[in-house]
């Protein structure tokens, strides 16, 4: 049940964040959260999970995805960087830190809000042509909202990284998949069974191992990644339970696309 509980908590979290930022007048979401959080036995919890997802997939959700063009242009002006030969911003850590502090300053000055930054982040995710990066964002979207050490949500860092990848990646020699994974993950780590994370990511996105997609999900969303990956491996011995878990994760991801308006 530990793997199912990760997905169940993921569903609860994405509903809560979607309600908080986009759908505050939607009582359907609050009712579904209540249903998921009710005490129930394991079988009932799985049924509730499935019923909630069915309701979500059969419901209409719409929010205004567009932010004022002046705010969008201003955000881009903050994110944009001029690179000289000796620019300190060629170190991605310096770039992330400086731009994060700039965004934080203007939020505190009430020039724009968390919601503006979140919408711009989702717009940037949808602008990605790299399917690896977009898929990672989908798998770990609940972690967009975890506060960083400076008390702003992680989606600030994600916006900076993705903007830099799309517009300025020629100035950096880094593995973008690995960097995004580290920002998204509850606990950054590397897979033991591969030389490094980028090898593992390439495996899944090249469809060389259909189950690695699910492994990456549990790695991003686990506090005990190694332990839960071992649980996932052990579960393969029970084919019906293994297939059920994978199918539940597939439909959970469909809900994420729908709620957050992420393009496939």
Automatic annotation (TrEMBL):
It comes from Vairimorpha apis BRL 01. This is Uncharacterized protein.
